[in-house]
Hints:
The chain is α/β, with parallel strands linked by helices. The protein is built from 13 helices and six strands. A six-stranded mixed beta sheet has the order 3-2-1-4-5-6. Helix 1 packs across helix 9 (148-161), helix 3 crosses helix 4 and helix 11 (189-202) runs antiparallel to helix 13. The protein starts with 5 loop residues before the first helix and ends with a helix.
Amino acid sequence: MEQGEPGEQGLRDGAGTRPEDEPGTGVVAAFGRQLKLLRIRSGLERPEFGKRVGYAGQSVASFEQGRRIPPPRFIDRADEVLDAGGVLKALKEEVGRAQYPAFFRDMARLEAEAVELCAYDTHVVKGLLQTEEYTRALLAMRRPLLDEETIELRVAARLARQEIFNRWPAPLLSFVLEETVLRRPLGGRAVLRGQLEQLLLIGQKRNVEIQVMPLDREDNAGVDGPFTVITRKGGEQLTYMEVQGRSSLLADREEVRLAAARYGIIRSQALTPRETQGFVEKLLGEL
């Protein structure tokens, strides 16, 4: 969901981002301890080590203390400078997952390795489809309020997830959104316009189908709410559901089979991808 604010500057200068876990816990803290041990073994003080990897000594301290998530390029460079033999690089994926809220981390991993993803959304545009402005607007509306650094962290994490559109082999991606999602001017009309334009662009990708469920439909199999069906390499399927900062990941074959069948019915009831393109263009003309 996630100008000059401290959090954004931290992302731009590569100083790292704050983990969603409490400081000193989890994989980020474990990475920090390993980093410190390797640095000391190499006989390097923080300022000297920081100079060799291109980061300030203060940033190195934050990484070692588990207060900031080190960027991938820092991890790669640190592994080389400290002659760690891949020990630090091996933790890169797990460290990266720490940028997500705890309830979403398993889904982020599954999303990154999915060969097919089918998502039905009823309230807001799916995170994978969001513009930066739309994401930031949504996060600013959260209650209780999120601090600016957390907002910028989550904006960056959400945008990073959109690498799924550049993967090869390309996963098959299907999205069905309720019409109300596209009419709700969250963040203002300019933000909505940018979001609708992005949907048109993404919808032109050969591996992506975006469909709208119109308000005038008398039949809608999605009355039980939003959900996502993920297919992994090998054919295993799972169903993900999220509400109010809580998530459920279902692996039971019968439950997942029913969810996939339900999604198929929803798709058949919605506008076709071609009709959806025309519908979104019409909405843009009304703004």
